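Structure catalogue
Derive tokens from sequence
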Amino acid sequence: MPAWSSGGMVDGVALAEVSLLWPDGVRGARRGGGLRAETAADLDLDPLVRALAGRERRRESMVRAVLGEPVSDGAVIAYRQAVLADLMTDARLRDGLASVLPLLAEAARGEEPASHTEADWGVLAFTRRLNDLALYVRAADRIKGLLAAASPASRGLNALRAALEEETGGETFRALQAGLPALRAQLSQGECITLAINLKPSWEPESAAILSIGPRTAGRGILQRLLASQEAEHALTPLRRVDASGMLGAEHSLARDLRALLEGTAAPVIAALQQFHTVHAGALAHLEGELAFLTGAAELFSRLRAMGLPFCVPEVAPVEERATHIEAGFSLALALRLLVDPRPGPRRIVPSDISFGPGGRVWILTGPNRGGKTTFLRAVGLSHLLFASGLPVPGRRARLSPVDRIITHFVTQERGTPGEGRLDEEAEGLARIFAEATPQSLILLNEVLAGSTSQVEALALAGDAVRGLRLLGARCVFATHLHDLAASVDRLNAAVPDADSTVGSLVAGVLEPGDSAPDPFTFGRSGDPGSAPGLDPPDDPAARGEDEPRPTFHIMPGPPRGLSFASAIARQHGISFAQLRARLAARGIGPGAAGGAGA
């Protein structure tokens, strides 16, 4: 049975059960596992987490929690999309809700267990309770007013508005709202205590007494007053900070007198608070994390759109369709890194269409080093992760079926597992994929089997894996340098005639002499002067070598081309033959050097 707050229930959900991420307050059951740590690293998730958290580290845990639990239920995804659409459409609502977050965060902290000192001295717990109720009333009134003025369209925000109207319209809430000023005024009568200390002729303390108790003259509340570092108006010395547990937990008779006086002062407030025992700030404070995530996301994507990058809300396709269609997709992680690039001028990023369907559900992606293969894999994975979290995806238009899990296997440097080589590690990774994945999964493989065995063996093992992926039916991109594997897609399809998942070939585009480059997206920060190449390198034949291809970073269907940018990479690191010859000559080594080859 749902928990009740002091008010009623709306559509079977109490205010304490309203969620902006889960319809009807019911947390959806995951059919797959959460996002693995290695998958988050493979997809380069950290820049996105920091951006969604607004660069506030305390909010990163909520962002990671949402992104780390991809949703496979299309109804939940659509529910989140609608809430976010309201926040992106109405900047006043978004900014207003963001301004309430500190109140909710403080109220959430008030719901934490009392400290040892508060537990020992009950009057402190009541002052904390009164402060929490005041926060709750302020936040509830503020959010209700914002939602009433905005008239949102989403089911989630309307459920919250209806629950708040029910809550704040109840007799208990109205009584609390009306009584809070008097209760706080009553409690302020114990915020300043005057002590007198008698000294011996030797000026040693001999005796002490409490002279008066009343409203504070300076400070910020009873506990803060006792611990304050500010000067009182008429004090001879500054107020000194003391240890709370030592002062309030002492068994000295003066401490007992002080406790008795304060409890007497607070007694009317304590009695009055009993009638509000059903009201808890947690009924609203639980939304702080969700609102922080959603308002942060709305702010981020609104800002990115304003900078010239296209983002769209994907159409939710049926799960069984296994659809992934994105027009002009790109990697958000890459775009975020470019935005913090210190170079002046706008940034440029090359988009690529992303499509899984009859033409290819298992794609073999080939192309030269630094041609954009890994970036494309991340674009596919991040787009599905954003979609599964209810967020917009990079691109002009999109239609996506939810995936039950995102599985990655990006080969890194050998970890040196005792008794095993790199081939064993990669084989184990592939075996895990086939043990976990379903036809509704998304699988991203990056250079699996590359360099772990001979070319002939790697081709045979990869061919078996691709045929297995076709049988599985999951959406998959396999980035590889095995060009012969991509060239054999017809044979791979013919080898598994009964499967419905076609194997296709993708290639990272290159420009050869006479080719024209694809149009990149141009985006940037307001006030950036000049121009910078970003990801669209200038076409300078002298810089890249005679008849040398250069990358376009555009991924498209097509046969493998077997091209390499090794010479360009060698020049970048200063190890082309011409560079090495010049370097050695400068050191007096080589046939053209002064002093001869043996110098």
Remarks:
- The radius of gyration is 33 Å.
- The chain has three domains: 1-24+52-189+249-306, 317-561, 565-599.
- Residues 122-150 form the longest helix (29 residues).
- Confidence is low (pLDDT under 50) at residues 1-12, 219-232, 414-420, 526-544.
